Amino acid sequence: MEIYNLDKEVYKIDLADFERQAKALSDLTTFLQDTISAHNITYLKNVEPHPWDILRALKKRLAPSDTAQKYEVIYAYRKMCKGPGNQNIETWLDEWDRVYTEALNIDLPEVKGNRPMEDFLMAVESKDPHFTSTYMMKLEDGEINDIYTLAERFRHRLRLKAIYQPNKSTTHTAFAAEATNTATASKLDASKSDTSKSEASKSKASYKGNKKDKPDCLCGWKHFYNECYYLNETTRPSSWSPNAETQARVDEAMKEPKVKKFVEISLQRSRDFQAKKSNDNDNNKAREAHPSFSAAVSRGSYSTGTKTSIYDSWILDSGSDTHLCNKSMENRYKQQRLAKPGDTVASGTQVLPIHSYGTIIVSAKGPNGNITIELLDVVYVPEYLTNLQA
Fold first, then answer.
1. To bridge 311 with a disulfide, which of 290, 307, 364, 367 should be the other Cys (CB 3.0-4.6 Å)?
2. Please, what is the angle between helix 129-140 and helix 257-282, to 10°?
3. Which of 80, 36, 74 minimizes the C-alpha distance to 58?
4. What's the pTM?
5. Diameter of the chain measured on Cα atoms
6. Residue 202 forms beta bridges with which residues?
7. Taking a C-beta distance cutoff of 8 angstroms, is the pair 295, 287 a contact?
8. Who contacts 226 (Cβ-Cβ below 8 Å, separation ≥6)?
9. pLDDT digits (tens, 9 = 90+) for 252-262
10. pLDDT one-digit tens code per residue, 86-110
């Protein structure tokens, strides 16, 4: 009798455990059914109402194949290699770690050897050229062999820069427009917005002037390698001639294998980017069907020796990062300083030398009529096809 009572107690305990597990599974099944979208409910027909069966059926229908997952990671990695752009740098670094780890998990060839570290350094070059050049040398010497260590050192450098240079901006200095009519100066932005609706289109004139955060080049000036006339033949104006002493200094520096390799990598990256940009423009059917000022600039389909219908006009262009005027405005333009060698404006496939920097008086339509404004830090490029107000 005692054995019977003992077995009965054991049975009650086992039954309580079973009922508790059954209730938990039932609750989980209900939760899954409530959270699955109506579109996916159809995949659960003729499926046992058990969490394991439900999840297995959904995985069979919805989980990406190994091939699809591989292509998703490849696309994400290549996107990361383009650099952070305007994205928050800390967010971009976290995303880099995540994508790189996923690439490792699927044994992606792109993350073998030193390739990911080279990709990382070139991706952050626009944010910190000195860091890229320094650690590219260390990578060649074998001092760095871990991408996580490299990324953490870059994070540490950013923190130090934030501490010691809290007010330094890493972006291009804003170009000021000083309204002489103080009553309407505060409404200038509104008038620019109204005026922009009537303009032909937006151009992508990119200013490559004197930036404080540009690295020291082999030629002695501060600019990127792809902007140097001594290193990149494609940027040289037809009238340019090298300085013998500078050319000798560049040639001597290029004899160092590590320096030469880094310069070649930097130039190749620039060529690849320009080639991709050119291909994207050529394949843009919308622009081919509806020509605009923007298309004319990006495709480089104009001649600097030919005056266009907009040669003496002003284009309000929020896509440009600087005010710019050509020879048609020389009577209004007041020169303040000459440009340095290597200062250029890029527009599509053309690179034009900057003559000088100064100010200019222009008229604009405001809400209450015409106003006169003085544009500061204006770039003077006599051969440019029009005039731009940023």
1. 307
2. 120
3. 36
4. 0.34
5. 118
6. none
7. yes
8. 232, 235, 266, 267, 270
9. 888 888 788 88
10. 888 889 999 999 999 988 888 888 8
